[in-house]
Amino acid sequence: MRLQLKVLKHRGWFVCLIAGISLLPLGSIPLAAQTATPLSYYPALMDTLVGGHYQAARAICDDLERAFPAHPAGLYGRIAISYAHMVDLEDTVGRAEFMELCDSCIDACDAMRNAGNESRAVLSYLRGSALGARGLLLNHEGKTLPALKALIKAKNAFEDAIDADPQFYDAYLGRGAYRYAVATHASLLRWLPLIPKKSSGWQDLWTAARYAAFSRSTALTSIVWHTMDEGDFTTADSIIQSQLQRFPGCRNFLWPKLSFYERQERWAEAEQTANLLLDQYLALPENNGYEPIGLYWRMMTCADALGRPNDALAFARAGLDTYRTPDVAERRAGRLRDLQARLSKP
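Predicted structure:
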């Protein structure tokens, strides 16, 4: 049993809604000197992070922490960066620091709440976000029960934020992701006291996508995967195209674009998208080889489907020859066997 909650992934929704979302102002990107609150840094921080620009995101977080050194918003900013980076590269480097940051953020939220010098909505949101990030990472690692415990606590914190301020729309993203995932896996989670309806999760996710101050694009990264799982490829394609216009080359939307083509057996487009992703990963100084191996395997599969066996063999050889850390070699053993097996076929 494993919840699929890709960080941090509707039938019946009109395409015009997506167009409307893409035209909505996604929050001003404030200069530090103009910032009134810690969360005023989040529109710039989260958009920069969605685009995969980790150094720029860290710089914004540095500014936030200099302006508000005792506020947990800076800690959650670090958590979001660390989580996104680990999942993006499928790496474990920084995991211990990530867990420590989660603990520190939760403790800081509790301490500030006891001191009474920040709003309940903000502190509950940050507490829920730290718990949610921990739960998502544990789920990504296949540790389902610890993940669920953290995610249930996160859901409760998001509900407290919404109860304190119903217009704190960023909190709807976390609650919606929980509701959708639990409803989707209801047959496996009958032991939970209350199983939400999938429609309530959809409503929360779309509320965040339409109205949140800094979580709109993040909400869409979840929605796009869910729409494909529901078979609504028209809406998924609209989200992908609109967000790639806003974030050109963004891996957060190139991955669903690749899946979109694969599910429709559009192998030429899938191979082209996989190659775009491969070029990005190979250029990253921290590349550990995990994603390149998988992408060479996908390109091999596409080439075979397109009747180009020689290219498929070349991709198999490239995948086997690509750099990989010992940890990745172990985790990618299955794909490496597939690539090796392809070399023995004509």
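Summary: The longest helix spans residues 95-115.
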